[in-house]
Amino acid sequence: MHSHVKSLYRGRSKYDKPTAQRYEEQRQVAKHAAEMRLIDRAFAHIPRTHRVLDAPCGGGRVTAHLAGKGYAVSGVDLSQAMLDIARANLSAQKLSCTVEQQDLEHLTLANRSFDTVISFRLFHHFPEPRIRQRVIGELCRVAEHYVVLSYFSPASVTSLRRRLRELRGGRKSEKHSTSLKEIDIYFQLAGFRLVKDFARLPLLHTLHLALFERVDAGPT
Ligand SMILES: C[S@@+](CC[C@H](N)C(=O)[O-])C[C@H]1O[C@@H](n2cnc3c(N)ncnc32)[C@H](O)[C@@H]1O
């Protein structure tokens, strides 16, 4: 990996072999199905001919789901343990998607090398605006047309509870919510605009999925 100064948040280093295995084994069937339905709602806007980057791919469940729908999908992740699980899962399902190690803060992929980029269940790990903007900049740089980003909404009951607990001096959460307004600013700076924001029940469920599309000519 390159020598840039790294930002620190637990999600960068926590996916070692035991944690990666636990993440895979503890996957809840109902929760997984609901999350894939949310992804399907966003991907109803994305042509099946698109080359898709799943970043981060973790154990490959989104990669496999989208490949099963006919997209040409590749995955990237920082954790070798997660990549090993993704490779095993994809080959067990006879899917020929490639996965490789990449850092979302500094992707070594070419500008616009994918039609659509999806980033699922990582953004809420980022504690600072600086990292959030950097990662959105990288996702937009490699996307020719669309970026699909999951984030934790600050307006949900769970987020409000978490904030109240912190205000009362309770345990600090490792999960960080971000307003769609803040996210939209980073996308606008990268030449993208919001198409639609998805959530199962916006005030009840913290996990949202926002679809953005390129509007500028940008770097080629
Ligand atoms: C909660 S998992 C989600 C994985 C997958 N998208 C899913 O929904 O199953 C978060 C993943 O982000 C990866 N990750 C954390 N920081 C990263 C970074 N800077 N670049 C690439 N991957 C990163 C972790 O290794 C982990 O696999």
Question: Secondary-structure map with pairings?
Answer:
Layout: H1 10-13, H2 17-25, H3 29-43, E1 51-54, H4 61-68, E2 72-77, H5 80-92, E3 99-101, E4 114-119, H6 129-142, E5 143-152, H7 157-167, H8 180-189, E6 192-198, E7 207-214
Parallel strand pairs: 1-2, 1-4, 2-3, 4-5
Antiparallel strand pairs: 5-7, 6-7
Helix pairs in contact: 2-5, 6-8
- What form results from the Cα inertia axes? globular
* Overall CATH class: Alpha Beta
Please tell me how large the radius of gyration is. 17 Å
Helix/strand-derived class?
alpha/beta
Beta-strand segment tally: 7
Outline the structure in words.
It contains 8 helices and 7 strands. With 220 residues, it is α/β, with parallel strands linked by helices. The chain has a single domain, classed as Vaccinia Virus protein VP39 (Rossmann fold). A 7-stranded mixed sheet has the order 3-2-1-4-5-7-6, sandwiched between helices. Helix 4 links the parallel strand 1 and strand 2 (72-77). Helix 6 crosses helix 8. It binds S-adenosylmethionine. S-adenosylmethionine binds at residues 11-12, 15, 56-59, 61-62, 77-79, 82, 103-105, 120-122.
